[in-house]
Each structure stands twice: as structure tokens, then as C-alpha cells.
Specification:
Blueprint: H1 2-12, H2 14-108, H3 110-121
Helix pairs in contact: 2-3
Length: 127
């Protein structure tokens, strides 16, 4: 008797029962899909964090290399400036020696000074 009543109820309300079952299936599928999406999102967030950490490490290494290159460049520049200053001092000493030599020749040996000028510049002295 109860079976008969259940059968009559099912036959009479089969559309409603089917709709309820379909709604339950859709709700379960949505829950599963949401969990999958949540897992994919968490995986993506972890991946992005790992990528950011990798980029930070690369950036740090590049900054250290740039710092080393800058220090090397500054050391090279200091050495070049030091060599330049020494060369300027040597040039100044040579100029003083030549000036002293030409002043001495001008006072004592003008003929030799004229010959030196003619030889060096390729011109002829015309008094």
C-alpha cells in the first residue's frame, strides 16, 4: 500500500522530482567546479610568488654586478686621472727645461737657436 502511494506520488509529481534532482546535480557540479577553480587560483598565486622571488634574486644579482662594475670603473678612472696628472707634471717639467734651454741659447748662442728653429719648423730665418 505504501508502495502504491509512493508510485502514485512519483507518477503524479515526476516533473518536480526531476527538477529537484537536476538542481541537486547542478549544485554539486557547481561546488566541485568552485573547488577546482579555487585550487587552480591557489596554484597560480603560488606560481606567481615563486616567479616574483626568482625575479627578485635576479635583480639582486644584477645590482651586485652593476655595483662591482661601477667600483671597477671608478678605480680605473682614478688610475687614469692619476696617470694624467703625472703626465701633465712631466710635460710641464719638459716645457720648463726646453724654455730654460732656449733662453740660454737666446742669451749665449743665437745662431744655434736659429738653426734649431729652422730645422724644427722647416722655415728659413730672414733677418
Amino acid at each position: 500500500m505504501i508502495k502504491k502511494q509512493i508510485l502514485e506520488f512519483v507518477l503524479k509529481n515526476w516533473k518536480v522530482i526531476l527538477i529537484i534532482l537536476l538542481l541537486v546535480v547542478v549544485a554539486l557540479k557547481n561546488t566541485r567546479d568552485y573547488r577546482l577553480m579555487q585550487t587552480a587560483y591557489e596554484t597560480q598565486v603560488e606560481s606567481h610568488k615563486a616567479q616574483i622571488e626568482g625575479l627578485k634574486e635576479i635583480h639582486q644579482k644584477e645590482m651586485e654586478e652593476k655595483q662591482l662594475l661601477m667600483e671597477s670603473f671608478l678605480e680605473s678612472m682614478a688610475a687614469i686621472e692619476e696617470d694624467y696628472e703625472k703626465a701633465l707634471e712631466e710635460l710641464e717639467d719638459v716645457k720648463k727645461q726646453k724654455r730654460h734651454e732656449y733662453e740660454k741659447k737666446f742669451r749665449h748662442d743665437k745662431v744655434q737657436l736659429i738653426k734649431d728653429i729652422e730645422t724644427k719648423f722647416g722655415i728659413e730665418y730672414a733677418p
